[in-house]
């Protein structure tokens, strides 16, 4: 297997992976979506709520706010030595929210949540929670725990995780450079150099086949296909975990699944 980083920033990464099959790529994708743990608010105790939102809706909105996660300091609730449904400081983080509108209407944002652990805070301080009319008030306690996406989407550490075959484009010499394929390409992969059609930014090709359908010649002089054992993997983090950590955790989980399966065969 060969891996090459094509693009990378604080929240997203694009990889070229060669020498693997669809089964492997789909396993990694599904693990990142459903089994890599991250923090999310799982329980909300409403002490006072005079806003227009019902308690259940308010709790639901707070639960969907992405939280920065420290995987090394906390345990999954079912793996914590405390074995308590209430949790402990090794598997639970408490956050509080206490706001009151004055004479004017105010919008409450995620920055108003106060965490007992400065490392476990909302990814963004500007997630709107509720709008309060004058003199309305909210007081609540929230408890965040590690969880997995297979139990609820709020525990998914990725906002996008997808792969595609590495595109392969072939233009035959019989092409008369009519330009029809260039006009319909949604990604601008093809360009007319007056003498012939050339390929640019081939990695942006979505394999949609629109250029093939637009070719007036029969059979079409342009062929689009995907490399059988080469893929482009796009990962975008919610901000709960660094994108590199998400991928490494997914690979570790896959290794453990292989080991467990081999042990069962012995």
Outline the fold blueprint.
Blueprint: E1 2-8, E2 12-18, H1 22-34, E3 38-49, H2 55-63, E4 93-100, E5 106-109, E6 114-115, E7 128-132, E8 137-147, E9 158-171, H3 180-184, E10 190-192, E11 197-199, H4 210-214, E12 222-237, H5 243-265
Antiparallel strand pairs: 1-2, 2-12, 3-8, 4-6, 4-8, 5-7, 9-12, 10-11
Description:
This protein is 21% helix and 35% strand. It is α+β, with helices and mostly antiparallel strands and 266 residues long. The chain has a four-stranded antiparallel beta sheet. The chain is flat.
Key words describing this protein structure:
four-stranded antiparallel β-sheet, flat, single chain, 266 residues, alpha+beta
What string, H for helix and E for strand, traces the elements in order? EEHEHEEEEEEHEEHEH
Beta-strand content bin: 25-35%
Main pleated-sheet profile: 4 strands, antiparallel
Shape assignment:
flat
User: Low-confidence segments, ≥5 residues, pLDDT <50?
Assistant: none
Oligomeric status of the shown chains?
Answer: single chain
Helix content: 10-25%
- The overall average pLDDT, rounded, is 93
Give the strand order, joined by hyphens, for the main sheet. Answer: 1-2-12-9
